[in-house]
Design a protein that fits this description.
By secondary structure, this protein is α/β, with parallel strands linked by helices. It is built from 13 helices and 13 strands.
C-alpha cells in the first residue's frame, strides 16, 4: 500500500515533531503493509531551517527499515519552485541523494529568494576523523559564525563567548556521534534577516543522551550515589555536569541563548526538552526536575526518533 503524508504549509520544528514524525513512525510500525512512503510538499510554503537535518536523518531511517527510499513530491509550481530552491541552497538536495527519490526534478523550476551562501548544511560520515571534523567546521561554519554569531556577541557584550561555545559544542556533538554512536551527523546553519533569528541545528542517528551519559559518567554517578532513569534526566545531567567548564558546554550555550530570549530544543531518542527564558530561573537553580510547569509545558515524551537532535534559535 502506498502511504502519502501531506506535509504542513509551514514545516516548523513543532510541526515536524507534532505531526510529521508521528505519522512516519506509525507507518514504519506497520512497514510490512507499506509499498512506498511519499512526503507530499504540494501545499508547503516554507520549511524552517532547523528541520533540515531531521528530514535527512529520518529519510535514512526510512531507508534502513523499508529497504528503499521514501519519495519527495514537490510539484513544478511557483510555490514548489521556492521550496526546491531553498532545499538546494541550504544543502538538503545534495545530501538527499541516495536517501530520497523525487517525483519531480529537484534541480529545475527554481523560484523566489536566494540566501546568504554562508548558510548551509555540513555532513560527517561515521568514519571521519576528529581532526577532519574540526577542519570542516572551521572552513564551512567558521565564516558563518564570524559574520552572525560575532555580531550577536558584540550586541550582547559576550566578547566572543557564545561564538566559541557554539562552534566547540557543534564539533563535540559531531565527534560524539562518531565515537559513541558510530553515526553520521548533519549540521545546518541559517541566519534569516526577515525574522532576525540565527537557526542552528545538528542531528545524528547515534545512541542518544541516556546511553552516552551512562557510559561517560558511570563512575561519577556511582561515586555520588546518583541514578538516571530516562532521557530527560540524562539530558539535564549532561548539561549540568559541564556547568563548571570555562571553555564550552551545553549549559553555557543554553543559558546565553535563553537569556537573550532565544530557544533551545534537545531531543534524544524518545523525549524532547525545550528551554526558553520563561524557565531561566529554574534552569539556573537546577530545579527543573522538581518543577511541574517544566514537565507539563517544556517536556515532550513518546517522540521516537533515534539519536540526538539539537536546535538553537538565537535572536540577532
Amino acid at each position: 500500500m502506498q502511504q502519502i503524508i501531506y506535509v504542513e504549509r509551514y514545516l516548523t520544528s513543532a510541526e515536524y515533531y507534532g505531526f510529521l514524525l508521528p505519522k512516519i513512525q506509525l507507518i514504519l510500525k506497520y512497514y510490512d503493509k507499506t509499498d512506498a512512503i511519499i512526503l507530499d510538499f504540494s501545499g508547503t510554503l516554507k520549511i524552517e531551517p532547523n528541520v533540515i537535518p531531521n528530514l535527512l536523518c529520518i529519510g535514512q531511517k526510512i531507508k534502513d527499515i523499508l529497504g528503499y527510499n521514501a519519495i519527495i513530491r514537490i510539484p513544478d509550481t511557483y510555490e514548489g519552485g521556492k521550496i526546491k530552491k531553498y532545499l538546494f541552497l541550504i544543502g538538503f538536495t545534495k545530501y538527499s541523494k541516495g536517501i530520497y527519490d523525487s517525483e519531480f526534478d529537484l534541480y529545475t523550476g527554481f523560484e523566489g529568494k536566494t540566501i546568504d551562501p554562508l548558510c548551509g548544511t555540513v555532513y560527517f560520515e561515521s568514519q571521519v576523523s576528529k581532526d577532519e571534523i574540526g577542519r570542516k567546521f572551521d572552513q564551512m561554519i567558521g565564516p558563518f559564525a564570524e559574520k552572525y554569531l560575532r555580531k550577536f556577541d558584540k550586541i550582547n557584550m559576550f566578547n566572543g563567548q557564545i561564538e566559541n561555545d557554539i562552534i566547540n559544542l557543534l564539533k563535540e556533538l559531531a565527534v560524539n556521534a562518531k565515537d559513541h554512536g558510530k553515526s553520521f551527523s548533519y549540521t545546518t546553519v541559517h541566519a534569516k534577516y526577515s525574522k532576525r533569528i540565527i537557526y542552528i541545528s545538528i542531528s545524528d542517528a547515534g545512541q542518544g543522551f541516556f546511553r552516552s551519559c551512562m557510559e561517560k559518567y558511570k563512575k561519577e554517578l556511582l561515586e555520588n550515589n546518583q541514578t538516571i532513569s530516562n532521557e530527560v534526566e540524562a539530558i539535564l545531567y549532561c548539561i549540568y555536569v559541564r556547568k563548571a567548564s570555562k571553555i564550552f558546554g551545553l549549559y553555557s550555550v543554553i543559558n546565553n541563548t535563553i537569556t537573550n530570549k532565544g530557544i533551545v530544543r534537545i531531543h534524544s531518542n524518545d523525549s524532547q526538552v525545550i528551554f526558553t527564558n520563561k524557565i531561566k530561573r529554574e534552569f539556573e537553580k537546577q530545579d527543573l526536575l522538581k518543577n511541574q510547569k517544566f514537565w507539563k509545558y517544556y517536556v515532550r515524551r513518546n517522540l521516537k526518533f533515534d539519536g540526538t537532535h539539537i536546535e538553537l534559535e538565537i535572536p540577532f
